[in-house]
Amino acid sequence: MDGLWLIPACLAAGGLIGFSGGVLGIGGGLFAIPLLGLVLGYEQQAAQGTALIMVLPAILLTLRKYHQHAPIDWRSAAAGACSSILCTWIGARIALGLDPWLLRRIYAGFVFLIALFYFRESLGRRARPRPAAFYREVGQVRKRWYFCVGVFAGLTGGIFGVGGAVLAVPFLTAFFHLRQTSAQAVALAMIVPGTCVALATYAWHGQAHGLVGIPLAAGSLLCVPYGVRLAYALPEARLKLIFACMLLVIMGLLLMRG
Q: Family, per the entry (predicted)?
């Protein structure tokens, strides 16, 4: 892409990605990675590292907006964050040693499985909300499970650059019976420290490009609040269906590169 158009194009793309990430609670990185590969020809590791530059500030702003709508369970998020930090670093080291072609296909397979889960969730019965007393009684047990969720979310976020929240949300909705928006908020809070670790690791190995990542981040920050507002306005089943459809689009974009 011509250097003259690179920055404004990244600002516009960041806006669209930020809006989508605000709706779906994933920071937009899942959309940025295949686009960086297709449009700019980045190898998978460089696309993941550059996307992290955009993802981190977008996650923080998304968290703030979610918290304004409903208080986040910070203690549960912290339990998951503790385990995710080390596992994110391990996952990032694994990803940096993989062949880019293989990593891209593993990433596409991961996205496809998550999409299938959300299709099932959007078409299935709505989970009955649990009373507040239920969560107080099992609070300590849930903290231990949050620690386990953080392990898998950290590995996923490290290997794929993003995606830790995407993996955590199904656990939080299916097993802890959280609402979709509440699960998205807790999952994002859980992965913030690990995302910092992943960005530092990718940048240390020269796989994070600020000239592209910074304008993507700026554009994303402008549009995240509108995406979060839409997320709270949509019915939960429709939000899950949109999530699944967008994941299939992402998988197609990844496989288009061959």
A: Belongs to the 4-toluene sulfonate uptake permease (TSUP) (TC 2.A.102) family.
Structural domain that includes position 94 = 3-256
- Residues across the chain: 258
Distance, in Å, from the CA atom of 58 to the CA atom of 21, rounded to the nearest integer, reads 8
Task: Report yes or no on whether pTM surpasses 0.90.
Answer: no
What are the two backbone dihedrals, phi and then psi, of residue 71, each rounded to the nearest 5 degrees?
-60, 135
Closest listed residue to residue 205, CA positions, set 88, 76, 45: 45
Q: How many domains does one find in the chain?
A: 1
- Work out the widest C-alpha separation in the chain, in whole angstroms: 59
**What tens digit of pLDDT does each residue of 110-160 get?**
888 878 887 887 776 554 555 444 444 444 446 677 888 888 888 888 888
Chain centre to alpha carbon of residue 151: 15
Residues whose CB is less than 8 angstroms from the CB of residue 120 and which lie 6 or more positions away in sequence, other chains included = none
Residue 72 CA to residue 80 CA, distance in Å, equals 13
The pLDDT tens digits for 219-249 are: 888 888 888 888 888 887 887 788 788 778 8
CA-to-CA distance for 19 and 1, rounded, in angstroms? 23
